[in-house]
Amino acid sequence: MTVLPLRPAVAEPGLAETGLSTHRTLSRRLVHRAALAEVFLTDFRSVDETAFHAAAQLPPRHFYYSDHTVRVAMHDPLAVFESVRQMLLCAMHLHHDASPETKSITATASLEITDPEPLRRAGALDLTLLGSVLLEKKYEGATSRVVHRVRVLADGREAGVITVDTAQRPNDVYERLRTSHRTTPPPMSDTLPATGTGAIPPVWLVGRERAENVVVQDARTQGDALLAEVRVPAAHPSMFDHAQDHVPGPVMMEAARQTSLLLAADHEGLSPSSFHLGYVSAEYLRFAELDAPITVVTRRMPEPVDGGRWSEVSFEQDGATVARMRVRLARALPSGGDDAL
Length: 341
What we know:
By secondary structure, the protein is α+β, with helices and mostly antiparallel strands. 15% of the residues lie in helices and 35% in strands. It has 2 domains: 2-176, Roll (Thiol Ester Dehydrase, Chain A), CATH 3.10.129.10; 182-331, Thiol Ester Dehydrase, Chain A (Roll).
């Protein structure tokens, strides 16, 4: 195992300083997207063994990422996460030399919005993504595990930091992993009904305007917890841009955000439009299957860790915990950053 140190702090580079461009998108194959409209990454460059840079552009309007009731309006932090996710998929191929058949499996991921002000802008938003390799483990000459840290900049200001721990597995190994807890092959999402059949909450209570973007259903209170089922949007043009054999991690992040907003509204009468996602961390323990119900259990954490409204979320399927998350809802203010709640 090789542990690589963090790079020393330097002046904040913009797109001009890095030589990156937002004139066109990269190949959709490099970022594992089917639709060109879902490709946010526009450039990529390796710097040295431990660093790489990329550019991305968040669209001015998007069916999924722009659908929020939050005021003041801002680009969605999960759109920032998607840009970095695409960057890291690209890095696996261009920086770590992974073959096209190699599968990336996320073990943990975290997103922290360190400064929301750069995201509060109308129109398209150019991002500079500064990636570092914190740890790399190889097996038979190929990267088998890598931990990345990415700083997200807009207009020379840091907007957020994302850290992702990813396993890399050849396709045959991945197939064995996928069937290790199953007696039948996992179904593909494009063979399933377009969406769930349960009752969805009022869309504004989960911070949405479109019912198509609601990913929880049959919500109910049990003591101090909010319980809901994941509503798998199998035909969603963004969340399921291409066929999947499991529920993707970002879809589960969205479910955690929605149940955290619903808990705040249901238990405390707080308006979802007054919050944005300030932080989310995720630990994925096993694949979330498409053909069995997933229960989301959300509780408010008893004390704020560093301000904001914190909740802890677990995803339960067939008697096992498949993922755990922590979510911080930050107060959306016209200016001046986030207030503690």
